[in-house]
Amino acid sequence: MRARSRVAAESDGRGGTRLAVLRSESPLLLRRTGPHTVHLVGGGAGPLRGDDLRLDISVAPGAALEILSVAAQLALPGQAHLPQSRLEIHATVASGGTLRWWPEPMIAAAGCNHLTVTRVDVAEGGSLLWRDDLVCGRHGEDSGDVRTDTTIRYAGSTLYRHELSVGPHAPGWSGAAVLGDGRAIGTLISAPGAFPATAGPGDFAVMPLAGPGMLATAVAPDIRAVQAALDPLGKPTATLTH
Amino acid sequence: MHPENQHSVAGGALPHPSDGYVAPHSHGPDEVPHTHPDPGVDPHEPLNSGPRALRVGIGGPVGSGKTALVAALCRALGDEMRLAVVTNDIYTTEDADFLLRNGVLPADRVRAVETGCCPHTAIRDDISANLDAVEDLEAALGPLDLVLVESGGDNLTATFSKGLIDQQIFVVDVAGGDKVPRKGGPGVTTADLLVINKTDLAPMVGADLSVMDHDAKARRGDLPTVFLSLVEDRTATPVADWIRGLVAARVPAA
Amino acid sequence: MSLASLLVLADGRLPSGGHAHSGGLEAQVSAGRVRDLDAVAGFLRGKLATAGLVAAAFAAASCARPGEWASLDQGLDSRTPSPALRKASRAQGRALLRAARAMWSLPPVGRDLHQPVALGVVAHAGGLGPEEAAVAAAHGTTSGAASAAVRLLGLDPYAVHGLLARLTADCDRIAADAAARAESPVDDLPAAGAPLLDIGAELHATWEVRLFAS
Fold first, then answer.
1. Where would you find this protein in the cell (chain A) (predicted)?
2. Beta strands A145-154 and A157-166: pairing type?
3. Domain segments of chain C as ranges
4. Do B10 and C77 touch (CB under 8 A)?
5. Does residue A56 sit at the C interface (CB-CB below 8 Å)?
6. What is the three-class DSSP state of A97?
7. Residues of B in contact with C18 (CB under 8 A)
8. C36: burial class by Cβ within 10 Å (0-12, 13-18, 19+)?
């Protein structure tokens, strides 16, 4: 499946946000669910091999946008002869704009082969919270192959550049350097940095990046422990409550 | 709020100072291209020259009283010269904490170096972490007269590299047995000053100080040896005097 | 290219500060994840595929274009979210530059570069090429941790070196890939991350008692 979806938020001139563009194709369906909120409502299981999905997000000066999802994404094997499934997310946040990306986890079902590419560009004076959770296999299942490739730029410089590969084709991914026995990992980027540095308890750390931002990472045997560590950091900001 | 402020990490414009590193000075020799060194020439700065502090290494076996000696020297010399300490205890901050707890030196004058289970490597074979610590102290505090580099407790063969220190003190104690000076080893034999510590314990452990003195002289030739009891002499007078002499000889009277 | 120069640069006895670092192993030993040879193997394999790949790529790129050390250094900053790991990398870069100044004529560079960038600059100064710089970097990410494993766990040193020997093909492949991409824009260079290395380094930095600097 091929899908191209796009959301563009801009200021309505009265302190609120209007969606100048909200266009979506299955399975990347977008629904406005609040003044600042859009939900990814999905369209069946997936991504599957052969899927080629792209989501473009833009937040203009003075606008605030929150993107949530109604359910986890389940990356599935699909037909073996097809290329790996691919989801590209491109986001820009202008100065004075706020973007909160907070979807449900992606689950790497056994046999899947999926790539998520994330490119976010935040202008100086823009504000970003970017959450990504990954679960390696459904309950009691081996992990499929998933690679995430993330670049977050702030004020014209690369703030965070990270790739993570899990699954049978990722050497050493279940060794003690990468995830160990952990089968769930969550990351939360805040730019500029919005929470204090800390480490522990458990496999959890909030780290000041070299540039103006923070990364919170949690690794755990299951997603609930990851959520318990990261969710409290991402309480919607005042501009996003409604 | 800039997160760097919370964690003092490098960031922003390049080139970065290292984390926690303060760089008020230029480091010219580091920044200019230079020719290949002559293999016959020691690349280290000649001793007793230049403005940098006298560096005195303090080594010796575990428990011989190195840290207590450093504390005594800080007590004796802290008010009369600009002094800093680098410790190499394997337990990172333990020795530094001892000095701080005893209130003999402010925290900013003590650096701890982790040695990765290899205390002798850190003072002899790969001295980079210790050199970094000394340089960072000098960068943070300005010119110093004396830097004491305390080794982690090691064995009788552990000595300091001349690339790290100018003079070294080797500390043994009478409780380790009066045979230690006779056994020799590079520490006992070649240290610029041998300190035989805990003389107050000699009667209790049956150590014969005259035997130790005789053996030390036999091993060390003209190199000096002093006996010390830090219980009785809390400012390690003979060692402090030895260091005073070195510092005076090094810094021309203004 | 001088093979002997490569050996000098990659020798574990090069006084460049490596002995004080466990390459993240001490934290994972303490966490109970690494107790035996198999776990060390898993640790090394994952580290090589992530931090090793990134180090090799940046060493190769810095060797190919040492004049771009500043932007490459920033590239590693963006790939190293853990402040403790940034500090450890810069400490080792600084120590390597200190050692290298006595060996070869270095161009003017910052005092405490990230270790892989320093390694590339030094390799270039020593007449080596990007692939040699990369293989030294990849090997270095595993050999330091392997040595720490022997010291921390009392493992059989022959068995641990057997692990290193079995990783050499991966090191060579990573180095060849790194050299092939040595001219890529900084953002396009590998960025493989290892979450437990990041988290472990942050936890390790808070310990009052530790044997290794990282």
1. Cytoplasm
2. antiparallel
3. 21-204
4. yes
5. no
6. coil
7. 126
8. exposed
Q: Report the candidate in A91, A9, A69, A78 with the shortest Cα–Cα distance to residue A49.
A: A78
Chain A hits for B19, CB-CB cut-off 8 Å, are none
What's the pLDDT score for residue B252?
Answer: 59
Size of interface A-C (CB pairs under 8 A): 139
If you average pLDDT over every residue of chain B, what do you get? 79
Residues in Cβ contact with C179 at an 8 Å cutoff, skipping those fewer than 6 apart? C60, C64, C129, C130, C131, C134
CB atoms within 10 A of CB B138: 18
Contacts of A214 in chain B (CB under 8 A): 3
Burial of A139 (0-12, 13-18, 19+ CB in 10 A): exposed
Residue pair B45/B55 in contact by the 8 Å Cβ criterion: no
pLDDT tens figures, B24-62: 334 444 443 334 444 444 444 444 445 689 999 999 998
The reply to whether residue C108 touches residue B31, judged by beta carbons under 8 angstroms, is yes
Asked whether the beta carbons of residue A197 and residue B11 sit closer than 8 angstroms, the reply is no
Kindly list the domain boundaries of chain A, sorted by start residue.
2-240
Q: What integer pLDDT is reported at residue B105 of this predicted model?
A: 84
Phi and psi, residue A29, nearest 5°: -90, 135
Segments making up each domain of chain B, as ranges: 54-250
Which among B190, B197, B188 has a CA at the least distance from the CA of B154? B188
Determine the average pLDDT of the residues in C142-150: 95
Whether the CB of C154 is below 8 Å from some CB of chain B: the reply is no
* Model pLDDT for residues B89-101, shown as the tens digit of each residue: 654 456 667 777 7
User: In this complex, is the C-beta atom of B2 within 8 Å of any C-beta atom belonging to chain A?
Assistant: yes
What is the topology classification, in CATH, of domain C21-204? Urease accessory protein UreF (1.10.4190)
pLDDT of res. A235: 67
What is the topology classification, in CATH, of domain B54-250? Rossmann fold (3.40.50)
Q: Could you report the per-residue pLDDT of C158-170, keeping only the tens digit for each?
A: 999 999 999 999 9
B212 and B178 Cβ atoms separated by less than 8 Å: yes
Instruction: Return the half-sphere exposure (C-beta side, CA atoms, 13 A cut-off) of residue B244.
Output: 14
Those residues of chain A that have pLDDT short of 50 are 237-242
| Band of pLDDT at residue B118, cut at 50, 70 and 90 | confident
A100, A188, B210, C5, C150 from A191: Cα distances, Å: 11, 10, 71, 44, 41
Tell me whether B62 touches chain A (CB under 8 Å): no
Q: What's the whole-model pTM score?
A: 0.87
Measured between CA atoms, the residue of chain A closest to residue C36 is A176
